Amino acid sequence: LLLSFLIGLAVFVVGLIANYWDVLGMGDVKLASGIALVTAFFSVLLPFISIGLAFVLVFLVVIIQLGFGKAKLGQSIPLGPYLLLSFIGASEFRYLLPRLIWCSGK
């Protein structure tokens, strides 16, 4: 429990620094730290998987939008929906991983 709190606090501090540089909005910072707090309770790696997956999803969507001319460089992109989607994905990953290992016979 203490470790999950410390990971959530670390994500919040990193998010505050990113907010100071106008890279992330404060809502994204609070959502990411809440996700980190919850997922770190189950596994230390899940916060990194969840938040990393959100940035990968945003990157892919922005590249596609730039290709179709729907987005411009310097435009703000909300990160919240991608954080929530990656949180759901990481939560499912937490339940699927032991079953995949068990089914593979390892």
**How would you classify the helix and strand content by structural class?**
mainly alpha
Distance between the termini: 29 Å
Instruction: Report the order of strands and helices.
Output: HHHH
Task: Tell me what portion of residues adopts beta-strand conformation.
Answer: under 5%
DSSP E strands, number: 0
Overall geometric form: flat
Q: Give the count of helical stretches.
A: 4
Low-confidence stretches: none
Average pLDDT, to the nearest integer?
Answer: 88
What is the helical fraction, as a range of percent? Answer: over 70%
Main sheet properties? none
Query: What value does the Rg take, in angstroms?
Result: 16 Å
SSE blueprint and pairings:
Elements: H1 2-20, H2 26-42, H3 46-68, H4 80-104
Please give a structural write-up.
- This protein starts with a helix and ends with a helix.
- It has four helices and no strands.
- The protein has helices at 2-20, 26-42, 46-68, 80-104.
- It is flat, with a radius of gyration of 16 Å.
- With 106 residues, it is mostly helical.
